[in-house]
Amino acid sequence: MLSLASYDDGAGTRLLLAGGNFGTSVQSVLRGFDGTAWLEQGLANYGGGVDRILVRSEATGVAAYLAGSFAPQPGASSSARTVARWTPAGITALPELTDRARALEFFDAGLGAGTQLFVGGQFTRVPGAPNPELQRVARLMGGAWQPVEPARHALYASAVLTSNRALHAWTDPTTSKRDLVVGGSFRGAADDPQVRNLARWDGQQLRSVPTPFSQHVTALCERTAPSGGARELVAGTQSGAFAFDGSTWTLLGNPSPLMTEAFVEFRPAGASAPVLVALGSGILPFVVGGQFAAAFDGTAWAPLGAGLSDTAYAGVVWDAPGGLPEGIFVGGRFTQAGASPAAGIAHWDGASWTPLGNQAQFFIVYELRVWDDGAGERLYAQTNAGVFRFDGSTWTAVAPVLGSLLEPYDDGSGPALYLSDRSRLRQGIVETFSSVPIVGSYPLAAREWSDEHGISHGLFFTGNFESQGSVPAVGLARYTNPCTAVRAYCTAKVNSLGCTPQVGWTGTPSAASSAPFTITAADVLNHKSGVFFFGVNGRIAQPFLGGTLCVRAPVVRTPARSSGGSSGASDCSGVLSIDFAPFLEPTLGTGLAPGVGVQGQWWYRDPQASFTVGLSDALEFLVQP
After folding, report:
1. Who contacts 428 (Cβ-Cβ below 8 Å, separation ≥6)?
2. Burial of 105 by CB count in 10 Å (0-12 exposed, 13-18 middle, 19+ buried)?
3. What is the distance between the alpha carbons of residues 396 and 382, in angstroms, rounded to a whole number?
4. pTM of the model
5. 21-35, 126-140, 391-405, 465-479: which has the highest mean pLDDT?
6. How far is C-alpha 238 from the chain's CA centre?
7. How far is residue 390's CA from residue 135's CA, in Å, rounded to a whole number?
């Protein structure tokens, strides 16, 4: 039993409607109690259930609207699924949602659209709708569900498999652009509904990467192309490993490795070229010793020595400071590497396996990273017993935290290793780097990345989460910490005298302080007027008046300022300046409350330039308390 509602049509039909899944010999999801017995109400031979019943008086009579996970089975009495309208005369199907609907309400926003039906639930898309991608809440408009607030740049997880995500920063040799490539199990994105399991983020939008395979992507890396020079993107899938040169995909080997958890490129001692190593579970299931670790020589895959006894999850290349030579450090849940016992971690030097001793505190290794915490490079391992550090000869327990990732990043407060549970490790101390709760699940992969325009920078996470705090963030999110610094970004327009204006600042953007927060632009033309325009909707890099617009609309313009500078002939001695502190006062009504991110840019007169204007680079900051 999931829902109850009282129904009275004023014409003799009075029922207590009950929604759920009643699981009798004929499955039913909607029944009505007339005071003496429970009666079937038109949804027989159904699976799922009715989560919400909303009764409403309409011009044509009283109707009950249904929401849930209900779906017809063979012999069903209706074709309706997930949402429907019910009256004693029958069931009317409403446009289908792809996942469970949990809430219904009619609402008139007073904007001229009239009363509309709103639905909330677990869905992310509507098949065939004009805008197929929704963010958990939608309204019925023109016979189709439309999003109320779609998640910007969302990646919608496949309902079939919601695991395996990978991130890799790769420069496409055909365009020379460096994109952040996302792999996993997803179907559709807010930017591009054609996205399937592989997408590329260029700093402004997610785009699909057409592939010859339909399976989910389990791992990403890059390798040296056989011709040398350009680096190819490598994607691991359930049907094999594929290499992409920017225009063509090539299956690597036959058989090709399956169920790869991680790739590593490694050049063994004396080898003329690097080899690609695949680690995972069931990689070469029909090759003795090749189930969990195998290397590709450009033609075929072969086991690494006698192989491992169980799944390998991670690998890194490192020239340890101790007695071990350069090689691959491999972590997983195996108990033997080659002919030697190995509790979850071992070293491969290109010819043989070596176990790493004294790690009795753990027996499974999930993630590995090489990182310098200020005392030299060390190998960090995320294990079943927490984080451990290896100096080439000895393992040392560092922290008991169990979050994965171990991704190096500096958010302005100093370098640290970041974990998926919103903790980070800095000089042996565990810190919490965000109090925002994770909704859905922990991130599965992370990568520090900046695009070529400086629009999109920070530590990027991907996984099966649905939001970050109150902000919709489906499948892809970015962490930055603007509290640590005011940042310049974007590209200034070179002015008519060949000078490049530079934005600058002094002070702190505090809403509670009356101290000046001064924003400037140097190297502008002397004695020219200019305005600082700002917004709160993020960065952009868009061609504009012969330069680059760096602030996403809508924008607010400050009063004009004169650049001053030397008298006489035109030069670049001008400086535009404004005290922004008054704009941070709550009484001004600009909406710049503490915690709001602000982006701004100078715009000034340059009569000899294209479009007669000049543009500085831009400034980004978070309003402080």
Report:
1. 373, 398, 399
2. middle
3. 12
4. 0.68
5. 391-405
6. 22
7. 44
